[in-house]
Design brief:
single chain; alpha+beta; 2 domains; 4-stranded antiparallel sheet; 7 helices
Amino acid sequence: MTRDNAFDISKIELPSLDLEPTRVKSRGRSWRARLLLTCLGLVTVVVLPFVVLVRTSTYLYADRDLPTWGSVGGGVLATTVLLTCCAWWVSKKLHSRARARWLGTRVVLPLVLAYCVYALLYLSSANAKGAEVRGYYRSLHPILRVAVSTVILIDRDMVVTDVARFAGDYARMGLPENRESMHYKQNDGFVHAVDLRTRGEGWWRNWLVEGYFRAMGFSTLRHRGTEDHLHVSLPLH
């Protein structure tokens, strides 16, 4: 074989492999995925305790026939256990020596009880149609009060338009008296219905609010017209 016919490997042109853009794109997608998962995790940690508090209380009252305060206590206990587990996991990640019992009894339980007391006793004047509605707020069933307060935490413009009613209220509104209305004080001493303003709000907002109450175990009825509102009630035992 002559030198001219010899195979010269140096003259072979190999295709270039551009791997760097692929790595950059992969890293970009990975960064976005981690950010999305982190945001979803934070939202879950913040929202889930309120869901557990309300849904557990409603389930124990409506499905297990527990007394009112026993049902609320069950919701508090379930929420405390959930938050204690989360707090203990975070403390482990931070290499803290805090014990689960200490976190639950000294930190989590007081916070859950403080929120419940706030939800049971307080309704801002900005979230009530008038002083009369605000005055009757404490006659509303405790589980409904906690549920309404939880919605107000997210929707600061929520307005409670009606709580307790009496026979003369229907005549004043030009309506026939409804003796089975949940707006009357029931045998347990509480009003089992509340009306929330929907007029002037976006359809998606009203849809989300109604979906929340249904998911939490309450009965809902949308009244449309000039006095458009959402009627939410807690079934009796």
